[in-house]
Amino acid sequence: MRRLPLWVSFIGLFALALLYVPLIGVVIQSFNASRLGLDWKGFTLKWYEQLWANEVIHEAAWNTLVIATVSTVISTVLGTALALAFSRFPWKRRAMTTADNVLYLPVVTPEIVMAAALVVMFSLLRHVHAMFDFGLPAVIIGHVTFQISFVTLTVRSRLSGLPANLDEAACDLYSGGWNLFRRVTLPLIMPGITAGALLAFILSLDDFVITYFTAGPQLMTLPVYIYGSQRRGITPEIHALSTVMLLCTVVLVFVAMRFLQDRKGKAAS
């Protein structure tokens, strides 16, 4: 087996260091007794105790979870339906090309541009209904607008790996309509749906730009709170909060990976 050149290994290690060393530093500083964090003054858990007692952070965390959960459910349902429409129904070539461009647009568009467009849209529509006023509903709608594309692309890639004549074989066995979807299609694309939902949830969890532009003055989320705290100076509580968010993300990814592995094992058996 051919070994990689030394310089390739060095670049790989350097890239990993750029990714993980700052995260490790944040975790270490969250246990540092020094409030300024310039030097190590001993191990402590008081920053986590202050974090637990901070009611503002509790409210921001609850808002973040509500937004991420609701927007993920909506985008997963709509994104899965859109992926099925792309893969299971005939499209003219020009119509498919146009639909693909529209689908990829939220992925490649700079987030600041999407946020500004949403502000204009909500400013026009909030006179029609209170749902479009800046606040929780507006943030959820804003998150769904970019989450749908990621879910659709993930589920669509899963559908493209399935046999083209699978539906016909199921219909030959007297399975059709909702029964075909529930017993054949849905179990096979569930890993893609789970991966898409997980990606949408994580993107919503740490989104700042769209949330900041559409939240209004009353709604606070964790990314917005961290940004406001950073402007006043980073405190050890922010390190503790970042560590908790990192831990939750790692646990979420681990559980999702175990779920996907179990699904693959059952499908193989």
Can you describe what's shown?
This protein has helices at residues 6-29, 46-53, 55-88, 93-108, 111-125, 136-160, 166-172, 177-205, 209-214, 222-232, 236-268. The mean pLDDT is 82. The chain has a single domain (42-268), classed as Orthogonal Bundle (MetI-like fold), CATH 1.10.3720. The protein is mainly alpha-helical. The chain is built from 11 helices and no strands. It is globular. The longest helix is centred in the N-terminal third of the chain and has 34 residues, at 55-88.
What name does the CATH topology carry? MetI-like fold
Architecture per CATH nomenclature, i.e. the level-2 architecture: Orthogonal Bundle
Instruction: Provide the β-strand percentage band.
Output: under 5%
Return the domain count.
1
CATH uppermost class: Mainly Alpha
Shape: globular
The largest sheet, given as strand count, sense and whether it forms a barrel, is: none
Number of helices: 11
Run of helices and strands: HHHHHHHHHHH
Distance between the termini: 33 Å
Helix content: over 70%
Radius of gyration over C-alpha positions, nearest whole angstrom? 23 Å
Low-confidence stretches: none
CATH homologous superfamily title: MetI-like
Quickly give the structural class: mainly alpha
Number of strands: 0
Quote the average pLDDT. Answer: 82
Quick structural gist:
With 269 residues, this protein is mainly α.
What are the main properties of this structure?
mainly alpha, 269 residues, 0% strand, MetI-like fold, globular, single chain, 11 helices
